[in-house]
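Reply to dn_fold:

You asked what the input looked like. This is it:
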Amino acid sequence: MSPTQGLAQQPLNSFLEADAARADDELNRVYGLLVAALAKNPKGTTALRSAQRAWLVFRDAEVKAAGEAFGEGTGRRQVEAGTLGRLLQERNAWLLLALAGKSALGSGKERAAADAQLNALWKTHEGTSRGPQRAWLAWRDAEVAFWSVYRGESTKDAVLTRLTWERCRALSGG
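and this is what came back:
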């Protein structure tokens, strides 16, 4: 049974908002550890900060679009808090990969398939999520730049592929 199953709207909103706050605290902790780990790598630190700033813009645009797509009503806070929590957890996973010194998993060979699927999904979302799409592209580019500086140029295709597949999953509701 889900911890939120059977909850009325207000307690459900509170649960999801508290969950997002915990994920945000964890993100701040992991980000701080990664910045400290990059202390002797100024280019890596700069690239990480650029990627994080771009991710914050994407996060805010995505949460706003999710709420607007839901419309007005009692469930809007739930949708926004749930979206925020998911995004924070996904970002934590990326930062933990970097902190562990692991390259982003994903095959550069899959990149064309991922791009084709993402383009098809964006066509179905056209008009409803243009702002988040642009923000995601800016974050994706900044994230790839960070990984290229941090783990080497050879990680570029793998990072692009993984980010693209993750975006496909998010846009298809999975």
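The chain has one domain: 9-171.
Hope that clears it up.
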